[in-house]
Amino acid sequence: MRKLFAAWILGLVMTALPTAGRAVEAQLVSGAGPSTKIVQLFFEHFGKDPACRNYSFTVPAPSIKHRGGIQASDTYLFGRTGRPLNTKERGIGKEEIFLAKVPITFAVGLETGVQQLTLKQIEQIFTRRITNWKEVGGNDGQILLVGREATEALFSTLKRDFPFFREVTFDRIFRRDPQVVKFLMSPAGRLAIGFGAQPNFRKHNQLRVEGFSSGVSLGLAYDLKNADHPVVRAARAYAASDEWKRLVRQAGLLPAG
C-alpha cells in the first residue's frame, strides 16, 4: 500500500513538472509616453491569451519616446509608438499594430478662470495675439504657454492639423505629459495652458475647445522578422477584435480604424 501511495505521489509530481518548470520569457514593452496607458490596458487583457502563456509583459510608465519604442522592438517583440510609422521607419523593417486613436486635449492651470474656448481663441493665444486670460473671460493674469519638444509625437500632429502651431514659441517646454500635468497643478503653472494626450490629464484640468478635434493613432511597433511569431499574430487579431474595441471605448478613446 505504501509503495502504491508513493507511486501515486510520484505520478502527480511528474505531471506537474512541465507546468511548474516552464520558463516564462519576460518582455518589456517600452517607448512613447502617450501610448502608455492604452498599451497597459491592452496587455492586461491580451496577456491572458493562450499565445502569451510562456510570456510576461511589463509596460513601464517612463517614456523613452517614439524612437525608443522603435529601437526597443529590435530586442523585444514590441515597442510603444506615439504616432503612425513613417516611410523611413518602415524602410528599416518595422510594422505596427494600431490600438487606439488618442485624442489631444488642452489643459489649463488652476487660476485661469477659463473652462471653454473656441479654436480661434486657441490660435490667438498660442500666436500671442491674446496674452491675458481676461481677454477671453478669465482672470486678470498673463498667459503662460507650455509646450513640448519640436519632434514630440502629439505636437507634430498638431502642427500637421493646425499649421499655426508651426510658428509657436513656448515659455516652458517639457518632455513628458506627466511633467506638464504637474506644472499646471503647481503655483508656477496656475496661469498656464498646455496640451497632451487626453488620458494623461486630470478631467477637471481639461479645457473644452469648440471646433477642435485632433488625435493620433498609436499602439505597438514590431520587427518584420517577428511578423509570424505566434504572439505577434495573436496581438494583431486581438487588436482587431470587437472585445478590444469595446475596451477602448470604455477607456474614453476611439478605436484605431
From TrEMBL:
<protein>
    <submittedName>
        <fullName>Periplasmic binding family protein</fullName>
    </submittedName>
</protein>
<feature type="domain" description="PBP">
    <location>
        <begin position="28"/>
        <end position="163"/>
    </location>
</feature>
<dbReference type="InterPro" id="IPR050811">
    <property type="entry name" value="Phosphate_ABC_transporter"/>
</dbReference>
<dbReference type="InterPro" id="IPR024370">
    <property type="entry name" value="PBP_domain"/>
</dbReference>
<dbReference type="Pfam" id="PF12849">
    <property type="entry name" value="PBP_like_2"/>
</dbReference>
<keyword id="KW-0732">Signal</keyword>
<feature type="signal peptide">
    <location>
        <begin position="1"/>
        <end position="22"/>
    </location>
</feature>
